[in-house]
């Protein structure tokens, strides 16, 4: 049958993987550093992934294709567990998923008394993290508004240590995209706990709302904590 379906321009695609979690049907995967359509019958042709491609490599066309099959999608999603993300095979180097040990053991300071970094993974921006990254498995997740790490002087030792991190700005970014990304992250990863760090300014409540709604949408029951940081860096509670 002739119908609308996604087409991915291999020359434009840089393998960043942002389209993968944007497709609720799991119809897109990363192969050899490029996004590809896993199967025609998994794509509904609605184009929810279009807005998540920074390279404008995805478009909707009409061509001969198998009919969209919701039952096939259900079976496909049941069999899609946490898998290593395709960035290791290529794509944008700045978005390649990496897990690493902190530069110093917990509680230890670096030379000269400086606070050592407690960051355990890369990337950290919510748009860029692959939801199936191994560092999210059995992890305590920290969701932080962009400004928190600059406002709170002891961010690394008090909040980041021992946690996987995602961060974003609910005022400047698309909060609906954050909602979708967090829903997928909670759904496919075995998150043990969620801590949301926000600033006291009203617009920052958007990241808390997205996290709470995503948790509900995921169907998971995960311990949830919200912490507010004042604009002068104090912990409000």
TrEMBL record:
Name of one Pfam family that matches: Fer4_6
Domain named 4Fe-4S ferredoxin-type: residues: 4-33, 34-63
Domain of life assignment: Bacteria
InterPro entries noted in UniProt: 4Fe4S_Fe-S-bd, Corrinoid_activation_enz
The protein's name: Iron-sulfur cluster-binding oxidoreductase
């Amino acid at each position: 049958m002739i119908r609308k379906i996604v087409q991915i321009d291999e020359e434009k695609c840089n393998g960043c993987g942002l389209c993968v979690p944007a497709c609720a049907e799991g119809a897109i995967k990363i192969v050899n550093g490029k996004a590809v359509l896993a199967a025609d019958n998994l794509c509904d042709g609605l184009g929810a992934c279009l807005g998540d491609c920074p390279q404008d490599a995805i478009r909707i066309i009409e061509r001969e294709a198998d009919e969209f099959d919701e039952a096939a999608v259900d079976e496909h999603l049941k069999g899609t567990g946490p898998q290593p993300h395709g960035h290791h095979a290529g794509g944008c180097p700045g978005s390649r998923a990496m897990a690493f040990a902190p530069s110093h053991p917990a509680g230890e300071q670096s030379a000269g008394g400086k606070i050592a970094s407690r960051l355990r993974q890369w990337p950290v921006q919510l748009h860029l993290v692959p939801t199936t990254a191994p560092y999210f498995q059995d992890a305590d997740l920290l969701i932080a508004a962009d400004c928190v790490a600059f406002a709170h002087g002891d961010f690394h030792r008090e909040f980041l240590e021992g946690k996987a991190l995602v961060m974003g700005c609910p005022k400047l970014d698309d909060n609906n995209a954050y909602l979708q990304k967090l829903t997928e992250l909670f759904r496919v990863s075995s998150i043990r706990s969620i801590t949301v760090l926000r600033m006291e300014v009203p617009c920052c409540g958007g990241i808390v709302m997205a996290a709470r709604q995503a948790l509900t949408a995921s169907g998971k029951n995960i311990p949830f904590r919200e912490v507010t940081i004042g604009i002068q860096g104090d912990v409000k509670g």
